[in-house]
C-alpha cells in the first residue's frame, strides 16, 4: 500500500493509556455507585471488587490480540483471522453500526448532566451534545497525535475531579454506614454486579487503533494493564465514598451520589463541577469510539466489505475522512430522530446492546483460537467469553438490531456479486 494510504503511527504509551481509560470510564461512574449501593447496600463493594478482578481477563485478552495482530480492523480483524472473512466482516459491521447510535447517547447523557446542573433547558442540551460530537470528529480528523493528546488532558481532568471527591469524602466516611453489611442478601450482590458489567466495557474499542501504535507489541498490553488498574481503583474508591458517606437510598439521591459527594465538599459550585465532569467523561468516550469506528470503516472498505467512499483518507492528516463523514451523517440522523421525538433516549439506548455484546463474544472467541501459544491468553479469553455470554440473554428485543444488520450485509454482498 502507498505511504499516503496508510494510517500514521503516532500513539505512544501515555496516549494509549488515556484512550483505554476514556473508552471504559464512562458516565456510569456518576450514576452506578449509588444505584449499586441502593441494590446491595455496603455489600455492593464486594460486587465492585469482584467485577474489577473479572474485567482484567477481558481487558488483557483484547490487549494481547491487539499486540499480536495490530490492525485498524480491531476485533473484526481478529475474528477474520480466527474464523474467516465472512465472520470477521459481520462482527465488524456489528461494531460499525453500534457507535453511530452509542456516541449520540453518550453526548446527550453528558450534556444532560451539565444542563441539569446549570438549570438549562432541552435546547441547550442538544447544542452541547452536538459540540461534544464535533469534538470527537474534529480531534480524530486531525490525527491520533492530536486526539491522543486531547484525551490525555481530558482523562487527567476527570481523574483529578474523582480524586478530589474521594479525598474530600474520606473525613465523612463513618463505620456505622457499613452496617448491616449485607442488608438485602447475597442475591443482591449478584444483581449489583450485573449492572456493573456495563461500567467495564470499552477495551475492544482501542484495538481498532492498534495499527497507529508506535510500538503495538509493547504498548497494547502495557497500556491496557495500566488503564485497567487505574479504572478499577477509581471505580472502587468512588463506590467506597458513596457507601461510606451513605449518599444513596432515596429518590434522586442514588442516581446523583457522586454529584452530591462533590457538592458536600465544594458547596453549590460542586454541582457545576459534577456537571462539567459528566461532559468531560462522555467526551472522552466519544473521542475513543469515534476513532475506533472511523478506522474500522476504513479497514472494511479497503477490503471491499463496505462502500468504497468509507476508505477515503485525508491527504493532509492521513486520517479516515470517509469513516468520519459516515459517522457525522449518522449522528445527524440519530439526533434528528431524538429532537423530533420520533425515538426516545431510553429506546435508543437499547439498540447497541446486542451488537456490542456480540462484538465482545466474537473477540473472545477469536482469542481462544489465536492465542493458543499463550497459556494465559487462552484462559483469559475463555473466562471473558463465558462472562459475556451470560449477559447476552438479557438484551431482549434489541437482538433484532443485529439481525437487521445481518440482512443488510447479505443484501450488500449479493449486490457486490451481481456487479462483478
Automatic annotation (TrEMBL):
Localization in the cell: Cell membrane
Pfam families xref list: AA_permease_2
Chief localisation class: membrane
One GO molecular-function entry: transmembrane transporter activity
Xref: InterPro entries: AA/rel_permease1, APC_superfamily
Tagged with keyword Membrane: yes
GO cellular component: plasma membrane
Keyword tags: Cell membrane, Membrane, Transmembrane, Transmembrane helix
Membrane topology according to the record: Multi-pass membrane protein
TM segment ranges: 12-33, 45-69, 90-114, 126-143, 150-173, 185-203, 224-242, 273-301, 321-339, 351-371, 383-412
The keyword Cell membrane belongs to this UniProt entry's keyword annotation: yes
Annotated NCBIfam families: PRK11021.1
Protein name: L-methionine/branched-chain amino acid transporter
Top-level taxonomy: Bacteria, Bacillati, Bacillota, Bacilli, Bacillales
